[in-house]
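Journal club side-thread
Mid-discussion, someone asked how the predicted structure for our own chain would compare to the paper's figures. Pasting it here so we can look after the session.
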Amino acid sequence: MTPLDIRRFCFPVLSEQGPEPSWLLSWSSDVLSEEVLSIIANISGCLAHMLPPRCPDTCLVNKYRLITGACNNRAHPRWGASNTALARWLPPVYEDGFGQPRGWNPGFLHHGFPLPAVREVTRQIIQAPNEAVTEDERHSDFLTAWGQYISHDIAFTPQSLSRAAFSAGIDCQLTCENRSPCFPIQLPGNASPAACLPFYRSSPACGTGDQGALFANLSQANPRQQMNGLTSFLDASTVYGSSPASEKLLRNWTSAEGLLRVNVRHWDSGRAFLPFAPRVPAACVPGPGAPAEARAPCFLAGDGRASEVPSLTAVHTLWLREHNRLAVKLKALNAHWSADTAYQEARKVVGALHQIITLRDYVPQILGPQAFQQYVGRYTGYDPTVNPTVSNVFSTAAFRFGHATVLPWVRRLDARFQELPDHPLLQLHDVFFSPWRLIREGGVDPLVRGLLARPAKLQVHGQLMNEELTERLFVLSSSGTLDLASLNLQRGRDHGLPGYNAWREFCGLKRLETLAHLSEVLADGRTAHKLVELYGHPDNIDVWLGGLAEAPLPGARTGPLFACIIGRQMRALRDGDRFWWEHDPVFTEAQRQELQKHSLSRVVCDNTGLTWVPADAFRGGQFPRDFKSCEDIPGLSLDAWRDTFPADDRCGLPSLVDGGDFVLCEESGRRTLVFSCRHGYELQGPEQVTCTPQGWNSQPPVCKDVDECLDPTRALCHGPAQCLNTKGGFRCICADPYELGEDGRTCVDSGRLPRASWVSIALGALLIGVMAGLTWTVICRWRHSSSASTLPITGSDGRATSHPGRGRHQDVGQEPACGSQTLLCR
């Protein structure tokens, strides 16, 4: 790793203030030593993305995919991996050539015209009242829910971690100035009370943007690229996560069957809910009647957006249950399997089902038969020259077509697929980030019935997006409501996506130069007029809006441009995936035949209380006419996964490894065990042992606890928090009066006095009490002795006499007077 590599990859993470001062540009590459640059690379977070991933060389290399997606392509191990840059199919278009979005600089002209404010585009072309929505008679609402779910399986672009502008510390929630990472959405001049909506730019990939050549000439800088925080593959990362850290949270590590964690506080008629998230991410919306400060936890899943809306949560829940159902059955079929083997095999099947349902059932209905055949076609095998990385235009524009198919309400139906009187139709703004609704209002089944038996929204000109999304969108990162359409337009500009015509030309489609051309393709003269009026030139039209406004192809939900982009991406995800379910080494022929029988409807039957479902979950229909009994819905038989020991086996299985596990595979026809350690442990001994005629060729390894607190390259606990090693992990502790914050790693002021102060106060109070007691005792004794000197002395005759000069006598038997301290004296 050279200083030049580090300079190009790492410095954009450190700052994002705009063009560098001239004195920085004059620096040469050898001003800082390689050692110093390596330190900067490490603390900036770039180093992990610069070093090549460690690819396994065991027999598992062709058996299970890595949780990060790395090493899928052996020659290009980062293709499709999480935390890598989105692919560019066309060069980006930035106003400064490196990173400033289109629309960043006031007065900047594009083809002779300024770009319109995105909020104005939303108001004039995209937004429609809720009551104007047209329903899609051909497709169920499950089509929309699955599109959202799958989009969360293959792409997530993280926003800037900073909540304020780097150059002036201005809060992006408050400013209306373009100061990176703030790129606010401007509102019309008479808007009230705020003049803009907050918007955070997407985080740049390491070594890109206007800081990519911090120590060299700007002409050497790499244009700003954006990250994909997830694996690009259709691999059910929505269920399992895209990093070892997320997998650690999601798995039930005490389970012998390789199960995923479930909610331990709530159950859905005996079926599992998703577990609650820990302190991060933030809490969700309070339930009715809850105090304003009380918040229900978000659900935990492989993707952090699982609690966005109840329909999405319901789909996540189905697949959690499906994994655990499969893992239990696979373990029962193969009692000799370890927990890791059962987990990995169930994960492999669930990933295959995601691929089958998406490419066989979902995508053809989105593209239409002709475009599907043109852009996707039949599977011909794995192609290592195909890059499966999700493209920027697909993630940021084309696959967001689904936002135009979202209904403004959520339906929940009873067992006869009728509206539930106790749980009526809900407006969309009432369900954003409200996981408590599943727990308190009927669970998953009513939502799934609504998805199956009610139509999706039809994409119609003049009603592209309902006002629930353009006026009342709620997200956890914002203090108010937002506009999804404007966010999509602004995000495309933030990412430097070229305009609508550039992408039509990329797909081999005709460029639209005139109003007549636009009117012909959009099949709506009014929208074409509005586009020309707002944008001035067809090349300026934002690609998301242009693709959305096109007339759908026959039998499709998209127009020709989005059909091209989505089709190309889906083919790349299939052909460039070494673990695609149809690729010969992944499953046996018998297993592939069983997988083909499965369907989304079967998943619903196996994991809910529904007994009637449509044969195709994405097709619109009415109950009971278009529904079938679950007894008539085919599913896969797991007998094809039965594993037996060879007759001449002399090895058996080793005992369990403390802190680790093993999985079975074959190498050169011999049974092999590959060992791994859980998070917080490291392997000591051979990673792989092989069964020979004499037994195992080596003793199994051991897993040793790692003291994470001793790693100087990782600041696990922040600020004054102290790191304490635990078995298999660590925890952060804070000195009184501080306590751990929500992230579990930072100390925050508890607002109370230190315990030592309370002890001091208590000891002080005790000392004062003791001193007061002693004082009163002395006083009382003194008073008592003083009074005793005046008592009468009884003579021999029995008469009382007094000593001269000692005061008046008292009656015999009368106690001495103590004044106001009588009680204390006693």
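Post-session note: The two ends are 87 Å apart (CA to CA).
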